[in-house]
Amino acid sequence: MKIRDILTFYDKILIVFVIIVSLVLLLIPFYYFGTSAEDEELILKVQQGDQIVKTVAVANSYQEPIIFKIKGPIGIHTIEVNQGRVRVMEAPAADPLKICEKTGWISREGPIIVCVPNSLSLWLESTNSDIDGMSW
């Protein structure tokens, strides 16, 4: 017995319909949440301990990279802002695991770069955001 003998014409229509609906439902989140708003401006916030020590407009990094250093208890971090993305370019030698350096680039709200030994946190905030809070 072959599969053609088991499936009717309407079964085949139902299978095609389910596949199409599934693909549409998979693509809807990318359409609504995939791109950021055009009037949205990202701002990098750098926190050392419990104080914000630096804020940088990420939009200024499209022409030329912004590189700056932040001194902490165990050494100096080199931070790079380039093409709308942020990363810790170089962690101090005293940082044993250099997790903040290995985190890589962040380019949207939500992810955060943390260097616990140096009490350093970096994150992006939007000037026009629908998010009013986050929890982990």
TrEMBL record:
Pfam families: NusG_II. InterPro entries: NusG_2_sf. It comes from the Bacteria. Keywords: Membrane, Transmembrane, Transmembrane helix. The chain crosses the membrane at residues 12-33. This is Uncharacterized protein.
